[in-house]
Amino acid sequence: MSEQTTASFSRTQGAVQRLGAAIDRLEAASARVGAGDLLLAGELRDARDHQALMEETTRVVSQRLDAAIDRLRTLLEE
Fold first, then answer.
1. Which of 56, 29, 49 is nearest to 41 (CA)?
2. Distances (CA, A) of 57 to 50, 62, 78
3. What is the Cα–Cα distance from 42 to 36, expressed in whole angstroms?
4. φ and ψ at 2, to 5 degrees?
């Protein structure tokens, strides 16, 4: 092999190695983002579950308050 061919091969090999390292970094970053998405999805699901629980609690409290108000009205009318 000539010196020029060897130098060209060496530069190409270095470029391939840098490309491989860049791809590895991109894959690692993508995995971190994916894990972050899963974490956010879990937090969103938890928040929705909490909201549903709070809505049910609010409904029950509202019914109890309405019943108490009705009883007080009845007592006051007597």
1. 49
2. 10, 8, 32
3. 10
4. -80, 165
Which runs of consecutive H residues, i.e. helices, occur in the chain?
3-77
DSSP state of 78: -
pTM, full prediction: 0.55
pLDDT digits (tens, 9 = 90+) for 27-57: 888 888 777 888 888 899 999 999 999 999 9
Name the residue type at position 33.
V
CA distance 6 to 41: 52
